[in-house]
What does this fold into?
Amino acid sequence: MQHYLAWKIFEQIGSPLKYAEMVVNLYGEEGLSIIESSKICSQIRPPIYGPWDSDHVQRLPALELFLGRAKAVIVHSEFARTQIARFTQAPTLRLGLPCDQKPGLTEAEIAAWQTRTRSALRTHFVAFGHITQGKSLHLLLDAFAETPELKRNGRLTIAGFPRDRAYLSELRRLVDLHKLQDIVTFELGVSMERLQELKREADVFLNLRYPNTESASGSLVEQLNCAKPVIVLDSGCYAELPDDGGVKLPVGVSAGQIGEAMLGLARDAEKRVAMGARGIAHARAMSSDVYVRRLLDFLRAAAADRSEKASLGRKGRKAAPAPVAEAPALSVPQILAASIAAGEARPCLVTFLNLPVEQLAFFIQVGVFGLDRAARIEAELIHFIRQVGRLEAYLIVNQVIRLRQFIRRGEGASPAVLLRPRTLELCALLEPRRLAKIFFAVILGRCAGEGEADAYARQIEAGRPIREVALEIFGSEEFGQRALSTLERAAIRRAVTTIPMREMPGAAVLPVVGVGRPIAFSNAEADAQACLIGEWHDAERDGVWSGGAQAAIVFRMAPADGHDLVLHYSGLDSSQDTREVTIRLGGRPADRREHKPDGSVELRFSLADDNARDVLRLDLDCGRTLRPIDVGLGHDERNLGLFIHSVRLETAVPAAMPAVAPPPSGPPAPAPAVSLMGAAAAPGKPFVYGERPQIGQIPEGWVAYRRGGIRCIDGRGALTFQVTGLVDSQLCLRFLLRCIPSEVMSGATYCMLRVALDGTVLSDPVVELDSDFELSIDVQPDFRTGSGSFTLELSAAIYDDRAGRETSIAADVILLSWVLDEGERPEAASARAESLAAIAGD
It folds into this structure.
């Protein structure tokens, strides 16, 4: 029933909170922990998965909502009968899905296939239905890759609606990786007519669904109706397929085992025909006539049994006045089911009155506020609930929900919502930016303008008491000009003044960072040691990724005279990660930066100016996020900012060390350097690509060339260089290049090379094909500030030396090496020009 409930709650009611409430009522903290890990209620990051489509669904079936008061139950598989047994003792009838309610093939079509498949050179495997991870389609592609004979003698069609677009992208990547383009076909969103054609064309069906969230499978019946073999997993309702009516593989099967099963059917046409015949016979045992007849017999028997029991109960009893009708007592699941059926988006009162206070606090934090457990506000929520009482907590939580609805719609909030004096006190536990938005809506009656909420959120994150922020907005001229009654003003004043005079929630309970007690942002740390502001992903083994371009870390530290704060962070391990990173402690930059051999960075901040402060804030800004999948690092589609390893206190670096303080005359000028995709060259030290360039050092639009260097694709290439330290430097960038024909041809020996710098053509020399030549670019004039970037664009075309003109056939440019060197002397430039002219004139 999970799929039905998820559809009802998310599609009709539109309330993830209602789903969380259902789960916590039925399964307590275990269920709510699954809600938290899935991020289905999160307000600051997209969901990771739907619990109803995961392995968790077998532990969270939600059958209690439907079976509690059932007088009789009908199921469609033995698997379903075992699942409901722990929830009801009501009489149960086991039926099956009627085969004639699912389209199959005619007898003539089945006979034609049996003749055709016996002489088929290649076996056609078909999988149809929604394209999701639960169908194990990736294992089918791996099976083809690991079974060469299957790759030669089989083909696969995957047909259906791609409900999971990310999974479809992964499947297509596997097709490219295993070179299955001529074997695997995707047909997305097929019509009923095309689906019937596929059923006629197929030799074998594949239906490897897991986990099993359905009591019976309509797709399995549809496949069996075609009299063709089906490969399934031996679990759920699929396990009830007769052993000789299909191929049943164990759960957890490997791609190689799937390949062997497919190969067994591909090799033996008679086995395919015989197995298909047994499968359709199994399906035809349950027709609509049989289904209806057995159902009516069961219902008549159940009604007679109830009538007999009622008659026995009346015997021997004297007539008595008819009792006053009373509504039967409902259980918590039944009340919850009624609220879902009615389409209520807000939590039920029964939740607040029945849950243990710890689970109720967890529910408010995760379900209502959409926060992770790492937000560390459970203790404060428990204290709040015990102070105001459960009924008052229920009323206040519903008012907070109303406030957030006002803000989402872009409206101000009516002061009437503040009839509960402590509503803003509960709001004070929210993330600072959302809290600031609520202050604007409640106090000023409008939505916060661009940057307004962020400005106050930064003050709260930096340690300013929340009540001070609210009182400042309350005391503003704008509030004084609002047309409010005396009662309305009093309601707002009362709500503002009940906010505790404290800093950001959670900061007071953070552990103090001291020498020898680093903050390690990893899974090994059970409790958060800092408040992570902004978007963050779940912790990993070595640290945690920020999920946005801007984020912050708030923590407490002991007075640390003579110590430095050290932040250890890194970005993506890719040469395409060229983002500029700005990190400040309390608004000031780091005093020292150290690059580690593994590519990570350590920043050192002197604490001399921060000694009197208890709460500190690190602001992180990397400009933009990157997705690993977009830069060739696996299949991770998360938006990633910076990876934070740790924060620690260390003894301050002695002032005598040259890196600590700049000389009195100011900071030294950086050494001249030019970099391209992480590859750097200093004056006189060339960067050579060699025969096997590293993947991370190959720019977009270029590929490794088998004879050494990198080659631009389709005769055009762009190179974007980062430049530092070129003030008053007479330097140029010198390239060693080679041009080759992009296709096989004879007769031509020269090509014309066009060179453009930031869109301006610098030269178009004619050079000899397949011979090394040098190209020099003066990069100094455009960088008088000493740093910046420029883009060099290269393109080449075959030069017809017989006609003395350029042709339309492209040539590819090979970049062998480049070096930052002294500027070319005039006489050298003249000699080079004469040499190129001589080549063109020969």
